[in-house]
Design goal:
The structure holds two protein chains of two kinds. By secondary structure, chain A is α+β, with helices and mostly antiparallel strands. Chain A contains two helices and ten strands; from the N terminus they run αββββββββββα. In chain A, a hairpin with a 2-residue loop joins β9 and β10. Chain B has one domain. Chain B: Keywords: Membrane, Transmembrane, Transmembrane helix.
Chain lengths: ~180, ~70
């Protein structure tokens, strides 16, 4: 009788249909684990490149950065407590103008700084509210009050002229802190 | 320390640094600190070949040890 140990193919595997030993087939050995870690490092490296490119673009264009002057509304057409949505500085940059009370108004870019959901004016609570994860922002400063956002909403610089309000610029992040 | 641990620990540290740098890259971009963004994304890019070298060295060492 043939010895099982000296047999080139073990008897249990010597068949045409069930000769693949599948146990441990998917287990992660040391080498695969290390390759996965290197791959992940590569993925992170690649993922930072677009941010680097955007930053370089900003650095190169920062000296010539200028904002358009855009009329938002006539103050006679709105009442205290009202909010108007508009686009500033680009046509895809959604913004929110809030007439908080007499002689006091504010405008912010209304993409929540958590996951960029649109932010709404909560007239009763006098807060800016992101309905996605209940992030709240202070209307006076744009700083986050509650919820997941950690950065303030970018504030839009306003100017009053001839009874109308104009948007003239966006405050940089450092100015708001 | 056994050489078999050295590579794994080094790679884990490099990967951790990659994660931290990536996170800071995004944060600094939104904080409009663009010079830091460039430095951090550069650091993340440099960490990848470093990880690759650690893997190659580890494989070479193990081959020499006959593992």
């Amino acid at each position: 009788m043939e010895n099982e140990k000296t047999r080139p193919i073990p008897l249990k595997d010597d068949n045409y249909t069930h000769n693949i030993n599948r146990s441990n087939e998917r287990s992660l050995d040391r080498r695969s684990f290390m390759k996965t870690m290197v791959g992940a490092a590569g993925l992170f490296a690649a993922s930072t490149l677009p941010w680097g490119a955007l930053a370089a673009k900003e650095l190169m264009s920062s000296s010539s950065k200028s904002y358009p002057t855009q009329k938002i509304a006539n103050l006679s057409d709105i009442k205290p407590g009202d909010a108007i949505e508009f686009a500033y500085p680009g046509e895809h940059d959604s913004a929110l103008f809030v007439y908080v009370k007499e002689k006091e108004y504010k405008a912010y870019q209304n993409a929540c700084t958590h996951l960029r959901c649109p932010v709404f004016w909560d007239r009763d609570e006098k807060e800016l509210l992101c309905p996605c994860h209940h992030g709240k922002f202070d209307i006076a400063t744009g700083k986050p009050l509650a919820g997941p956002p950690r950065r303030p909403l970018p504030e839009i610089v306003l100017q009053e002229k001839d009874g109308a309000v104009y948007a003239v610029g966006v405050k940089s992040y450092e100015e708001q802190l | 320390m056994k050489s078999s641990y050295r590579g794994v620990i080094l790679l884990a540290l490099i990967l951790f640094a990659s994660i931290v740098c990536t996170q800071y890259t995004v944060n600094m971009y939104f904080a409009q600190r663009y010079m830091e963004v460039l430095l951090l994304s550069g650091a993340t890019v440099v960490l990848f070949p470093l990880a690759w070298m650690v893997l190659r060295k580890d494989q070479r060492d193990r081959r020499e040890q006959g593992k």
